[in-house]
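For consistency, the fold was encoded as tokens, as this record shows:
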Amino acid sequence: MVEVEIGAFQAERGTTQRICFNVVVEITPLPKDLDDDVDRILSYDRVSEAIAHELAAERLNLLETLAERVAERILLEPQAVRVFVRIEKLDRGPGALGVEIVRSQDQVSHTVAEDEPPHPRLMYLSNAAIDSGNVSAWIDQMECRQRPLILCVGAHPLETPKTGHKWTQRRIDLLSIEQNAWRLAAKDDRCVVVATRTELDWAMKNGQICVWAPSKIVLDAVDGPSEAPTESVALASWFAATFEAGEMIVIGAELPASPQVPLRAVDVEQTQL
């Protein structure tokens, strides 16, 4: 339920009223190997984002127009086959008065422009940077720049077990980075550790500062990184490249020889970015 200005009558102009959305999406059959993976389904966030996008686009007179546009935007999602959209006005007379439409992929009447994906700022913090006492000040400066912020780290400073086996060692090294992500999150309550693309997409659109836990995205990548987890700055630059980031700030660590995005080195003692 949201409060918006909508309606064709003069009495509905210049005032808001409550409207309620009820959306059901029929989706393509789920893959047998879904494995309870949130990145492979149609997230509820995509439905709520479609509603929010169309409400923000312009003032509308008709619920029918709004329902049509919401349905078309949801049908941009590859998993969506058919969508039922019901919208009701709650303040116009007794009960709830509204419309309901059903649309399928072959009924989309016009091309809906997809949103430009966000291009976040990324900042890599070495262990010396995490322990420096400047973390919150650096985050304050990055937060003021009106772009989504993702923080990356390397392995924690403790000794990591050695297995002598390439693939199991890779998993352990990735987990070591994730443990360090939680250590960074403990330094500032604004930082939230995220592991999936779905969580990252939501966070970037809602102003949440993320700390990247790399295991899932690295292991699920079709064209995965050639860098080992122990090359954590290079790994973070690969991750930054997947977002077409213009730059990644690296605090307190050496820069790799061939990064995939432009890098800017910052000394741990430097408080101003």
